[in-house]
Amino acid sequence: MKISKEQRSNLILLAILVILLFTPIGTTIKVWVNRLIAFSPSVEKVENREILTDYNWTLIDLKGKASSFEEAKGKVVMLNFWATWCAPCIAEMPSMQALYDDYKDKMYFAFVSSDNDIEKVKNFISKNKYTLPVYMPGTFSPKMLESNNIPATFILSKDGSIVIDKVGAADWNSQKVREQLDKLLSQ
């Protein structure tokens, strides 16, 4: 049986799709593409900002210690929902780490994984040498912080106003984000 040029082309295309969708090479390519297209997130207009009033939420750190999101009340907050299997989440992690390194003593950070396996999360964080404060949800998050998609990132002002509400990968270490954080921290 002889394979035509068209069939050969289709088989090659199918092989490429399988590699991109179902192998670690495909994940790596998806991560790099997401990094290339990640821009600074946009800031919500003041009149459109919602204010978080419910901080009743338990988070579990990677050592199994429970903490309350109430600790974030009155602080500038960066809250990120992510997963180890999510290419856009992985793509934005280096920019988040750079931002965290510079702002960790000035504001509250929480990176909440939606993975079910805490060991997988620990291994991911360790392998990539991240020092981000990573948590697992201990209880359901406040309604205003729920998202059906990841990554989902929120930046809150000291009064709980949701200043940035971004779904999808972004460049969190941009000058625009840093200027916004500096502004929020000075208020």
From TrEMBL:
PROSITE patterns: THIOREDOXIN_2. Residues 48-186 form the Thioredoxin domain. GO terms for molecular function: oxidoreductase activity. This is Redoxin domain-containing protein. It comes from Imtechella halotolerans K1.
